[in-house]
Amino acid sequence: MSTRELSFAEKRDWLRLSRTATVGPVAFRDLLRRYKSAGAALDALPGLVRNTGRAAKLNIPPLEAVEAEMEASENIGAKLLAACEPDYPALLRAADPPPPVISVLGKMDVLHRPCAAIVGSRNASAIGLRFARQIAGELGEAGYTVVSGLARGIDACAHAGAMETGTAAVLGGGVDHIYPKQNTDLYHEMAQRGALVSESPLGHRATARGFPRRNRIISGLSRAVVVIEAAAKSGSLLTAKNALDQGREVLAVPGHPFDARASGCNMLIRDGAVLVRDAKDVIE
User: What is the pLDDT of residues 120-139, one digit of tens each?
Assistant: First the structure.
């Protein structure tokens, strides 16, 4: 995808098309390839849907609603980035397909450094939390932005450990929605010192259905995903799978075989993930 700045009208069309309920990232990519612009795709979309018999499900947001979102984003200091624009993170743009539009609240520069994701259990052990904080700090000192999902447990400790050097959180809701509430202070600190990222509109509340999309962005931003204390069936393993699909490295911290919180990590290592003992293993 070639990069260029969009005009106000072009970005409005990108946002309007991406906010259309029946248009996900794959459909957005295909429509743009076929019609060359989001505006032309919007013009063609009613006819395309009518031919499939799904016209009743088509809900293109009105211009006023999209312009209101753009103004509201500007008012809180969030930046809307289309996938073709230069400030859009290059590694995420390389995902196939990338989220058409993301919102970023905070410091853009942390997204343009090499990124490494740290994910894991919300119900982590004390030693797992300590290890997440330590390895995040060491990766930050080595020049990496630490990416995670602002969840309780491993995520929160990874963000805290890398706060001094640079960290980014990908949210399940809009960039103005704090979830979970226990991380309110961390959210506000990251808005000032790090970056908050979302592909959801402002005001959108995080739901379980949205977290797989969030996890895809966590891995998409990152060169590697480090998994710490993940159960055999967990969102962290979905993030690891996304990373593999996107051609990124997957690394895992081993745990005791009797600890269910480590079963997913041990499975990843068994299946070929790099075993992590410290930050050096990740950097190498």
Answer: 999 999 999 999 999 999 99
What is the 3 state secondary structure string of the chain?
CCCCCCCHHHHHHHHHHHCCCCCCHHHHHHHHHHHCCHHHHHHHHHHHHHHHCCHHHCCCCCHHHHHHHHHHHHHHCEEEEECCCCCCCHHHHCCCCCCCEEEEEECHHHHHCCEEEEEECCCCCHHHHHHHHHHHHHHHHCCCEEEECCCCCHHHHHHHHCCCCCEEEECCCCCCCCCCHHHHHHHHHHHHHCEEEECCCCCCCCCHHHHHHHHHHHHHHCCEEEEECCCCCCHHHHHHHHHHHCCCEEEECCCCCCCHHHHHHHHHHHCCCEECCCHHHHHC
Tokens of 264: 């997913």
Residue type, 96: D
- pLDDT, tens digit, for every residue of 48-104? 887 665 555 788 999 999 999 999 999 999 999 999 999 999 999 999 899 999 999
The pTM for the full model equals 0.94
CB 67 within 8 A of CB 12: yes
